[in-house]
Amino acid sequence: MPMMDPVMPLVAVLSLALLWIVAAVQKVRGFAVFSVVLADYRLIPKRATNACAVAVIALELGLGTGLLIPATRSLALVGSALLLVAYAAAIALNLFRGRRFIDCGCMGPVGHQPLSGWLVARNLLLACLALVAMLPVQGRALVWFDAITVSAAIGSAALLYAATNRLIANGPDLARLRT
Fold first, then answer.
1. Strands, E, within the chain: which ranges?
2. Which of 59, 29, 36 lies closest to 44 in space, CA to CA?
3. First and final C-alpha spacing in the chain
4. Closest of 119, 127, 126, 122 to residue 101, by C-alpha
5. pLDDT tens digits, 43-60
6. Number of H helices, E strands in the chain
7. What is the mean pLDDT of the chain?
8. What b-and-e string marks burial along 6-32, b requiring 16 or more CB atoms within 10 Å of the CB?
9. pLDDT score at 168
10. What is the DSSP string of 16-38?
11. Domain boundaries in the chain?
């Protein structure tokens, strides 16, 4: 079986760590907004909203940190995949209920992003990325040029993620302009 170059899963792991840590920080910065968004999903009792919001933030922060520690990386990758699938399921359920215009909570307090099938697909794709990062890698040592490659790839991944989120968020407005 062919093995991946060790740079590839490292980029995936560090990109996911960045995603989780930034997401947790945004939720902390806009805790009141995040609590309202979480309540809008109508998946938990209202009285449990703040406790669940704290738990989600702690989980995202724990996953982000766990990805950075080699001893906990595999567990954090599985946890990342499971949480991303749970997020996709929560969005899909609300889409099924016809609740398209509630905020997904993906952009934190900086912007509103309505639910869409694209968000479900994005989260499932990210879950697959987490699982792919667990595949066997070649046993070669990383060299100085790998650090440059990893840094550039993480920066590119972050920009691609931000651009994709912006496109998904603006999708309904673009659709309205076409009609």
1. none
2. 36
3. 50
4. 119
5. 999 999 999 999 999 999
6. 6, 0
7. 91
8. bbbbbbbbbbbbbbbbebbebbeebee
9. 79
10. HHHHHHHHHHHHHHTHHHHHHHH
11. 7-178
CA angle, 58 then 59 then 65, to 5°: 90
Cα dihedral 134, 136, 142, 148 in deg (nearest 10): -50
Question: Token pair of 32, please?
Answer: 């009141």
**Structure token pair of residue 156:** 């590119």
Q: What is the pTM of this model?
A: 0.89
Cβ atoms of 66 and 75 within 8 Å: the answer is yes
176: burial class by Cβ within 10 Å (0-12, 13-18, 19+)? exposed
Specify the pLDDT at position 1: 59
From CA 60, how far away is CA 62, in angstroms rounded?
Answer: 5
Give the pLDDT score at 155: 93
CB 157 within 8 A of CB 11: yes
Residue 137 main-chain phi, psi, to 5 deg: -120, 160
Compute the chain's Rg from CA coordinates: 17
The position carrying tokens 């399921």 is 89
